Amino acid sequence: MATTADIKNGMCLDIDGQYFFIVEFLHVKPGKGPAFVRTKLKNVMNGRVIDKTFNAGIRIEEVRIERRPYQYLYKDDMGYNFMNAETYEQISIDKNLINGVDFMKEGDTIEVVLHAQSETVLYADLPTHAILEVTYTEPGLKGDTATNTLKPATVETGATVRVPLFINAGEKVKIDTRDGSYVERVK
User: Fold this and answer.
1) Dihedral angle sign, alpha carbons of residues 141, 145, 146, 148
2) By the 8 A CB rule, do 133 and 171 touch?
3) Using H for helix, E for strand and C for coil, what is the string for the chain?
4) Last residue of a domain, one of 97, 125, 153
5) How many domains does the chain have?
6) Of 91, 125, 159, which one is at a domain's C-terminal end?
7) Do residue 139 and residue 111 come from a single domain?
8) What is the pLDDT of residues 97-121, one digit of tens each?
9) Which residues have C-beta within 8 Å of that of residue 64, sequence separation ≥ 6?
10) Angstrom distance (rounded) from CA 86 to CA 18
11) pLDDT of 57-86, one tens digit each?
């Protein structure tokens, strides 16, 4: 058990059976009354940010979490299967726990966040950017670079993204996996 004096950014807390990351905190000692700690907490499961105030010196339950690299192997009816690169242990993760799952291809390495004591998966994150090949899009015309117009394109994972008019099938593009937006063309 920790106290509010041990609070730091990135720490994970168990509050009423839910896990929260501390985004930011502030120790406040008013001129009148007891000291307190004002925090912003991000829910691990749904990403919601809440404000919570703790009295100074109270006990809080810290949760130990670990981030481990896992390699994506394949998808089956049980979910997405991954392998730990160090121990070769395989796990299956539900689609809802993976952020940016539409841009994941076989062999990609992702970061899996696990509860250290129970070894349960909290969530999994892809790298911020993925380089994918465009498999289908309407052909672009020479000189279509002047406007900022976008067209739909299907990438090798099957996801549809919006790309500029000058991108053709067979070209590689960099995609932001957080929101699925086009970043740049890759040579």
Assistant:
1) positive
2) yes
3) CEEHHHCCCCCEEEECCEEEEEEEEEEECCCCCCCEEEEEEEECCCCCEEEEEEECCCEECECCEEEEEEEEEEEECCEEEEEECCCCCEEEECHHHEECHHHCCCCCEEEEEEECCCCCEEEEECCCEEEEEEEEECCCCCCCCCCCCEEEEEECCCCEEEEECCCCCCCEEEEECCCCEEEEEEC
4) 125
5) 3
6) 125
7) no
8) 888 888 998 889 999 988 888 888 8
9) 12, 115, 116, 117
10) 30
11) 899 999 888 889 999 999 988 889 999 988
104/100 Cα distance (integer angstroms)? 7
User: What range defines the domain where residue 177 resides?
Assistant: 129-186
Counting other chains too, the contacts that 94-98 makes at CB distance below 8 Å and 24 or more residues apart are: 97/121, 97/122, 97/123, 97/124, 98/123, 98/124, 98/126
